[in-house]
Specification:
Length: about 350
């Protein structure tokens, strides 16, 4: 530890340069990772907020909740089996602060309501709860919004982060929803579904149970966005490994004579190797932790309209991967350090 720290202080400019590069790479990785998570949540946060294990949908080739049309007779059978009321969805356009917003309107389902950020769930037929992304223009509880066509709705509450396929979700009570919407899709979110109940449902013609992952995989925008963003993150980690490999390898070559002298006076290779590992860990940790602090601070001031979401588990994963990548990237330096011959390093072989 002492040897590693003394060398960092002696070559401080070199190590500061490495830290700055790791800092920039860390910010890029964390920002793209947060963007990927934010876009993912804009696709599936409505499903995540339900905490449901299974969904009963129309048995289509692709399980898409916005295209699930379950007939009244089938609905009655499902309700008899599951004792669960349906979640209904309809596309609507709201006029909010002179702007038109395409939204997904849902009814109120007991035990499957998304969390409220503030206010209350709609109880009157002319009340609506808005997703928090829609209030960026200055809408508050008690204000009114218009459905395209003229109907006015009073805002009773703000839903916390509830979206589906990049559309904000708004909620009305059952009577108000049925009165306003004619063309609706029907889904049954169920949990604690027994094998017997699932078998009875799957034996019904035209309906089937699906998991959240099966539904998520069929959201067109989800896979299209996540694949390139994840590829960019992987590419940045590869770039980090290459950059760190080059820096530490060049530094090791520049210190060949010093390493040879240390070996000649009896310093074991394992001590030199541990000093190099400590230097890598110190520079990587400082750079990554500063980048974590910067990105975390930025996430607090970013507007709610920006699709950015970062979690503690995501931050810890990025830090761990950076440490692993740094050590892998310095593998060439490890090999070079092992091969240094003390006699040749100090010119004794000439």
């Amino acid at each position: 530890m002492k040897l590693a720290w003394q060398e960092i202080k002696f070559y401080k400019f070199r190590f500061i340069l490495i830290m700055l590069i790791i800092l920039l790479l860390g910010i890029m990785v964390l920002f793209i990772s947060g963007l990927a998570q934010g876009l993912a949540r804009e696709n599936v946060s409505m499903l995540d907020n339900m905490k449901t294990e299974k969904y009963i949908l129309q048995d289509n080739k692709k399980p898409q909740i916005e295209k699930s049309l379950i007939k009244p007779g089938q609905q009655k059978k499902i309700e008899d089996i599951t004792d669960q009321k349906p979640l209904k969805l309809a596309s609507q356009t709201l006029n909010i602060d002179k702007n038109e917003e395409d939204v997904i309107m849902t009814n109120t389902v007991n035990n499957e309501k998304p969390k409220l950020k503030e206010g209350s769930y709609p109880t009157d037929n002319n009340e609506v709860a808005l997703n928090n992304k829609l209030i960026a223009g200055g809408i508050t509880i008690g204000d009114t919004v218009k459905v395209k066509g003229g109907k006015k709705l009073k805002v009773s509450g703000i839903l916390d982060d509830t979206m589906y396929s990049h559309s904000s979700v708004v909620m009305m009570n059952n009577a108000g929803f049925d009165k306003l919407n004619e063309q609706v899709s029907t889904v049954y979110p169920v949990k604690d579904l027994s094998e017997k109940q699932q078998k009875e449902i799957d034996q019904m013609a035209g309906v089937k149970t699906f998991s959240e992952d099966e539904i998520t995989s069929e959201i067109a925008s989800y896979q299209a966005e996540q694949s390139p963003l994840n590829m960019m993150i992987v590419s940045l980690f590869v770039i980090s490994a290459i950059v760190l490999s080059a820096f530490f390898y060049v530094m090791t070559i520049q210190k060949i004579s010093e390493i040879g002298i240390l070996k000649a006076i009896g310093i074991k290779t394992k001590h030199l190797l541990s000093a190099l590992v400590i230097q890598i860990l110190i520079t990587t940790m400082i750079g990554v932790l500063i980048s974590v602090g910067i990105v975390s601070s930025l996430s607090l001031v970013m507007p709610v309209t920006m699709p950015f979401h970062i979690t503690l588990s995501n931050l810890l994963l990025v830090v761990a991967v950076f440490i692993i990548v740094a050590i892998i990237g310095a593998a060439l330096s490890f090999i070079k350090l092992f091969k240094v011959d003390p006699i040749e390093a100090i010119g004794g072989a000439d």
